[in-house]
Each structure stands twice: as C-alpha cells, then as structure tokens.
Amino acid sequence: MRIDFSYDGAGFFGYGVQKDLRTVQGEILRVFNYLTHSKVDIFVAGRTDAGVHARGQVIHVDLTPEHVARLEDPARLNRALPEDIRIHSIQEAPYGFDARFSALWRRYSYRVCDVSDQMNPLTRHQTLFHYKRLDIDAMNQAARGLMGLQDFAAYCRPRDASTSMREVEKLEWHREGALCIMTVQADAFCHSMVRSLVGAMIPVGDGRRSVDWPGMILESKDRTLSPEVMPAHPLVLEEVGYPEADQMLARQFITRTKRSPDHG
After folding, report:
1. Which long-range contacts (CB under 8 A, 24 or more apart) does 17-24 make?
2. What is the pLDDT of residues 141-163, one digit of tens each?
3. In what residue span(s) does the Pseudouridine synthase I TruA alpha/beta domain sit (predicted)?
4. Is 138 helix (H, G, I), strand (E, B) or coil?
C-alpha cells in the first residue's frame, strides 16, 4: 500500500524512530501496530531531520488483506494520529513500488523573509528571518554551478558506506513579496545537503560572498570548507516523483545500483 501524508516537524526529533524520543515514524507505527494488533514495517521516500516539515511525504507498507481492511480508511487513521501528522491518501501500490527506491526525485522548498517590518511572527516556525535584503538574481547565478550530476561531499555530512554523488535537476530562488523561496529538486539528497546549499547561497545574496563561492566549495569536495548548515524549520519536503506504474521495479534496480543506502 502507498500512503501519502504530511506533518509539521516542529514537535519531532526527525522522521526515523529513536529510543525515548518522539518521531514521525514512531507515531505512525504506534497507530498501525495498535490497529492491526501486530508489528508492521513502513518504508519512507526520504527521512527528514529534526524540525523539517513535509507536505508530500510517501511511505509504503506491506499488508495482509485483513490488515488492509483495518488501515485503508484515512479518516480512521487521522483520528488516531496526533494533529501534527495527517494522512491524505491510501491506495494499493503498483507492482514493484518502493517508496524510496522507486522515486525519481524529491523536491524541497526553503523560505526566507528578508524585510524586517514584514516578518510575521505567526510564520516563524516555517520561515527563516534574515535581517539583510537578498539579491535573488545573484543567488540564482550561484545556483547554476550546483546543477547536474556532481559530488556534493562538501555539502553533506559523511555517512559510512554511502555516496555523495547527487543529480540536482532544479535549484532556483524566487520572490513573493518579502519572502525569498528556494526550490530544489534532485534524485536524492544526502544528510544536511539542502540546508548546506541554503547556507552557501544566502551569503551570496546579502553580498558577503561572490557568486562563484558555492561552486568553489563544491569543487573542493572538502567538508571542512562547508558553509553553515541553516536551521531546519523553514525546510519542507514538498513532493516525491515516481515513474509510470510499469516502470516502478526497473527504477528500483537503477536506484539501488547508482548508490549505497543513505538518507534522502
């Protein structure tokens, strides 16, 4: 079964289960295990860090027909789940579907407000307040050097038996009034990659760094030169893209071959 859902990450210590800590996966498993009277396993498109939100997260779960009957109603699940997690749809997945390995891409957004008298305290849990005006054109110019299939070792926290090769398909900023919004889409993301990209481009936008600085960091492949990892609360997993139904299994094989297991 494929399950699409969203959550407000402010009250969680990340997605993945951690002992004695409140997590998104932990809350979902608590409800699923209670309703099925058994232990189930769920698999996610991409684990998010503490404080990161999701508007378009995806999991899959293998269920018996009996368990499907107990979990197929989103309204029933939402009544049992806390209010900071909402399930939007549950459907039988195509043959070969894997929430993580069948994915073609993940898309994130990051919101920054750079006009001090328009900084809304009601949105402070989803927005970074920056007290200097940002040059969107300069940040987009810097973003061009970070596109394509490249080694993002300088932008990722290292993990054993994983690769930092990623293909960034889209990376751009646009302005909506006082908000500067970054959209980034890639086949996958390694740990802290998106927030490190933001940390490289904001100094370009406010004039502290040149437009070629983020690209120079990328080329160095040196994590010690990495920019600041920006706060998690403005980061949102917006959507996960998948191929046509008959390509799910083939996509799994491609993804598993391209890289070792790691966090999206």
Report:
1. 24/48, 24/54, 24/85
2. 999 999 999 999 999 877 766 78
3. 142-243
4. helix
212 is an active site residue: no
Residues contacting 168, CB < 8 A, separation 6+: 146, 147, 148, 150, 184, 185, 186
Q: Which residue in the block uniquely carries the two structure tokens 């990161």?
A: 52
Cβ atoms 217, 196 nearer than 8 A: no
Write the burial class of residue 246 (CB in 10 Å: 0-12 exposed, 13-18 middle, 19+ buried): exposed
Evaluate whether 63 touches 1 at the Cβ level (below 8 Å). Answer: yes
Q: Which of 8, 20, 41, 49 is catalytic?
A: 49
Task: List, in order of start, the domains of the chain with CATH numbers.
Answer: 2-91 (3.30.70.580), 105-242 (3.30.70.660)
pLDDT tens column, 198-240? 999 999 999 999 999 999 999 998 888 878 999 999 999 999 9
